[in-house]
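Quarterly update from the structural biology core.
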Amino acid sequence: MKNTLTPLALVVLLVLLAALPWIAPYFYIFIATEILILGLFAASFNLIFGYTGMLSFGHAAFFGIGAYATALLLQGMQWPLLACLLVAVAAGAVLALVIGFFSVRLNEVYFSMLTLAFGMMVFAVVHQWRSVTNGSDGIAGFSVTSFGLGLDLTLGNPSVYYHVVLALVVLATALLYLICRSSFGLILRAIRQNPERVAFCGLNVRSYRLAAFTLAGAFAGLAGGLMAPFLRIASPELVHWSMSAEPVLMSILGGTGYFLGPFFGAGMFVLLETWITSMTQAWMLVLGIILALMVMFFRRGLLGTFLDWWLERK
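Predicted structure, tokenized:
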């Protein structure tokens, strides 16, 4: 019964998400688009944190480079969106490969500090290379003229762009799920639990960590590539180290031990930000209190706590 309920619940959720533009005002379409993009960003981070046990504080570098790659191509070359996103994925993967080559050699807090340092360096380059990135002003004023593959889509329409984001996020999530469920994903989990034992079995732990880091960078680049046309700007804030904290918060809120946990966390994060900022400017204080309570009393995250409660009822 449980095995049939989960796919059925996912199908119902996808149907509701697809029908959202016809049943909700534009405001909630924007909110849902942001949740989908940030959910993919958080899920990419969870591949290296929840599955591999590496806490990176520089994940925004891959998200931001994807956003800038898309914005630059749309502004200067007027490429179709799909081609821009492929470049964003490649840019995120290459940057992650370079940063990961040096970072995965270290463990625990040293790995976290090195990724933070690389993230700050990428931010400094983006912020100061004004001739390319336009400095603190960012890259704006571009438009998305076509999607590619011969599809005639009005991407300037928020509902159409929402459906494009939904389709691409679902495809990327399915691919990420297959990766996590593969033998590669099982080895990553083993590395998180006991890297010494994995190395004793003859596997190169550093290579697996680097592969996971590069894949996470590629998915983060895709999320960044989707975010730039959504915001109509690629700004240094997308690369800032504080942006790297958001997937950490989302993963913890949703539950790092569950594949869809980061998506639930992203939904909770964006909705809390939206609702609390409408009442007070001190929304970060309120969010901090909520996060502290979650860590103290709901260590399995929102999704994990709900699933535990559901299973206990059976």
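The chain has a mean pLDDT of 87.
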